[in-house]
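Long-time lurker, finally posting.

We've been working with DUF2891 domain-containing protein (Gluconacetobacter dulcium) and I want a structural starting point before designing mutants. I don't trust myself to interpret raw outputs, so I'm hoping someone here can both generate the structure tokens and explain anything notable. Sequence follows.
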Amino acid sequence: MTMLSHAQAEQFSKIALGHVTRPFPNLPQLIMRDATDLALPQSIHPIFYGSLDWHSCVHGYWLLARLTRLFPGLATRNDIEALFTRHVTVENSMIEAAYFDPPIRRGFERPYGWAWLLKLSAELHDHPVLGGFHAALAPLSQRILTLFENFLPIATYPVRVGTHLNSAFGMLLALDYAALYPATGFTQAIREKARAWYDRDRACQAWEPGGDEFLSSSLVEAALMARVLSPDAFAAWFAAFLPDLAAGQPETLFTPAIVSDRSDGKIAHLDGLNLSRVWAWKQILHPLPMDFAARQRIEHTMKQHLDASMAHIAGDYMGEHWLATYAVMAMQTGPNW
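Top reply, 14 upvotes:
Generated this for you. Predicted structure of DUF2891 domain-containing protein:
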């Protein structure tokens, strides 16, 4: 499987630096209480105002933090440190957190943006270059933690679409942050909710992808269960969830998505689907035995999916403002990517 190279890391860091502070075009999810709430993105969100939308900006920062951890000698390292110094301050984090104060905004960016914010915070914890910014981001990350903790008990049903609303993806990203604070009970809350929602799922049909999906709803669910179950329990659950993988079924999971128009922001999501499937398969294969019957077939389709979309990370802003994150996800290994 292709591994992330230093040259790719340089390219991706330059792409991210070019969009995390680019305020326009902008797709705000501005929940206005009255006319006084109308303001430019950078005044409402002094850290995460670029990259077309809030969540893409958040994971653009995660991408930069991740790349500096993996490649401390990046030529862009000084620019990345300067970016964090300018924007990731306690004051700005408090402003970002305050946006969630009105009850009408408690669902802003739930769960995708929440999960990426917690993933960013976890990445900054003990980071060899940017570790000091973990504390600076704490007012916002702690607010998101509280929102997430309050939401899980009232979430009766999971959202299974392969877009930002997907419940399994949100919980999976949040697990690394939860592990940093075991006393909160957040990890246990995620495990219990995952099992309540997905334990009994059998013979998944994998009717995917939808026309604007960037996640595989079936594989993301399985990736979450790979994290919350023991290896033996997961192997048994997965055998029942996708029982015909060794025969190449469901065929949809082994077929890269076709992206007909990369200037269309929704259709461009399908490049993300190809990349996120590779990432999800890695999470799934990690706890399974090496002689797992479908391993070779899965590894082959992972290469096909990478080949289908890796050449299209840059070129049109509709994909360029976010796809590098998913490329790095796809080329990471192990469950704690």
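Before you design anything, note these points.
The chain has 16 helices and no strands.
The mean pLDDT is 96.
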